[in-house]
Structures are given as C-alpha cells and as structure tokens.
Amino acid sequence: MGKPWSWTVGRRFTILYAAGFLGSGIVLLALTYLMSGGRVSSAAPEQPPAGPSDLAAAEQQIQDLARRLADVHAQQSHRLLAGSLIALLVMAGVSLLLGRILAGRVLRPLRLITAATRRITAENLHQRLAVAGPVDEVKELADTVDGLLERLEASFVAQRRFVGNASHELRTPLATMRASLDVAAAKPEPAAQTVALVGRLRTELDRVDHLLDGFLVLARAQHGTLADRTPVSLGELARGALTGRAGDITAKKLTVDDDTVGRDAWTRGSQALLSRMVENIVDNAIVHNEQRGWIRVATERDDTGAHFVVETGGRVLDQTQVDRLTQPFERLGADRTGPECSSGLGLSIVAAIVAAHGGRLTLLARPEGGLRVAAAMPTAVGFRRGEVKR
User: Percent of the chain beyond pLDDT 70?
Assistant: First the structure.
C-alpha cells in the first residue's frame, strides 16, 4: 500500500510555481486582448466629405470594406485569444513539470540531510553530515545538526565512561567488605549475632554486586559495538539456562515444557550478551512465578527470523504495566518483585540486548493469566550446526 498523498514542501513549491506562472500568463493574455480590442475600435473609417451623387456608391463600398476589415480583425483577435489560451494551458503543464524539477533541485540537499540523519544511531554518533557548498540556509541547518550530534556523542561517551568506571571502582570496596566479613566469620566461636550479621551483609553485598553487573551489561548492550558477532544457537542457550536453574525450578516445584527447544534457531551476535538475554528471560519466568506453576520454553525459526519464547501462568496482568517492564527498575507490584535481591534490571537488559542485535522484544499479558516474553532475532546464515557459515 502506497504512502498517502500529503502536502510536502516539494509539492507546495511546485504548485506555487505553477500558480505564479499561470497567473502572470493570464494577466499578460488579458492585457494583450484589451490592447488588441482597442486597436479594433480605433480602426473605424472616417466619414468621407460631402460630394457629388456619384460618390454615394464609392462611399457604400468603403463602408462595406471597413465592416469586412473589422470582421476579419475580430476573427483574428478571437483566434489569437483561443491560441493564447491553448498555449497557456500547455505552458501550465510545462510549468508544473519545470516546477517539480526545480523543487527537486532545491530540496535535494534537504533530502540528503534527512537520509544521512536517519542512518546515524547511538552506535555511529561519530558520523557527521559535513555538507559542502556555499553558506546558505541549508548549510546552516546541516552545521546545526552536526553540532547537535557532537554534543550527543560527548554525552553518550561520558555516560558510558561514568557507568563503566563507577561499576569497576565500586567492586574494590565490595571486595574489601567481603574479605572483612570472611575474617569476622572465621574467628573461633563467633557470636551468634556476628554470624547473623555476616549473613545479612553478604546477602546485601551479593545484591549490590548483581546490580553493578547489570549496569555494566546494560551499558554495553545500549552503547556497545558488538565486535564479537558469531553464529549462536538460541536452543543451546535455552537448554543451558534451564540446566543452570534446575535447582530453583525444583525448589518451586515448577513444571517446565521445553519440547520445542532446539529446533535450530540460529542468530548472529555476541555469545555473552545473547546468553545473558536468555538467562534473564528464564530467570524472570522462575523468580516471578507462583509455587507449583508452569513454564513453557520454545525456540523456532521462520521467514521473519529466529525466535525465543517463554510463557508462564499466573494471575491476569495489566498490559499497560507489562509494557513498562523494559524500563530499568520497573516491576509489576510487590507480589511479583521476587526476592529482595531482584534488581529490576532483568527485562530492561533483555530489551537492550535485543535492540543491539536488531531484534524485536514483545511482552504480552496472556488473556488467561501470566506473561509471554518473545524475542525475535535476525536469522544467521544457515541453520544447522554443520551449515552455519562462520
């Protein structure tokens, strides 16, 4: 289905050009016709002076000749008017074509600026429009956009540097605190209060460490370059994630349906980030599930790409609240926040990783209750282990 017709700048420029040309042509034609009519009225013959009776016949012939000349001149004026109208209509069409060409020439730099701006994303903010040519309104616009891109690049770089440096710097005091706790717990016959305090502090330190790790992964997924792209099997990642959380699945007495996992759903990307994506989705399905609940895990491929889908049961959720789960620290309420170590970054990290790989993440509140998380990723070249081109 084509794009609906709209009053673009090019079309407005074309119509204004044609209207101006047509208006000036009409004015010129009217002036020509008026001037031609004035000459006809002034062409009437003067009355001959009184004379002998034999001049009556000559006078009559002169009057007949004057009428015939006036008729011929009127016909010529009408033909001139008709021809001018036809020429005006033809030139109106030509003016539309010429206006379109001129509009295209005038607006071509703007189209180039628009196309170049659309190609610039968070991953290539270093690119600039760098429009050459005379200093005019178009170049001023391009230079303004380049300045904006420069400021955005500086802001993104500063944000990445801050997140990375802060996360790494905070690991040093965390390691020191862990060592101090280990020393306190290793003393002979420690007090019960000391043991309880050490346990609580270790739990909080684990939570902080998990949060810092989430910040690092989120920063890399949002602003990283993904230089380590390789073919990755979503089925293998799903099997590994389920195996790694087998203890938690057993503790909650969850029923797992993974019969459709492993159908050669291959994508291309960062092995570490894609593994984290799958683990976070599976972890979300386990942590935010009800006791004796169920999980359905599937990997598949079709013409649109490779898909990783996880469904869980539970109460009916609000789709408006579900749509906000891809934002950092968003949760669905106290009964779905899971344990206190939950950072609220799980699905936001998933969304960032999917976007970094050119995929699409869909969160759907199931009508019968529970949540469906589907990650659609671009398909790698080849689908079977022996066929994937590396």
Answer: 80
pLDDT tens digits along 180-223:
888 887 888 778 888 888 888 888 788 777 777 777 777 766 66
What is 157-223's CATH topology? Helix Hairpins (1.10.287)
d(CA 70, CA 299): 93
Q: In this predicted model, what pLDDT tens digit does every residue of 41-66 receive, in sequence order? A: 444 445 555 455 567 777 778 887 88
Mean pLDDT score, 127-133: 78
- Domain positions in the chain: 9-39+67-120, 157-223, 229-377
Q: Does domain 229-377 sit in CATH 3.30.565.10?
A: yes
- 31 phi and psi, to 5 degrees? -65, -40
**Residue 385 confidence (pLDDT) above 60:** no
Q: pTM value?
A: 0.56
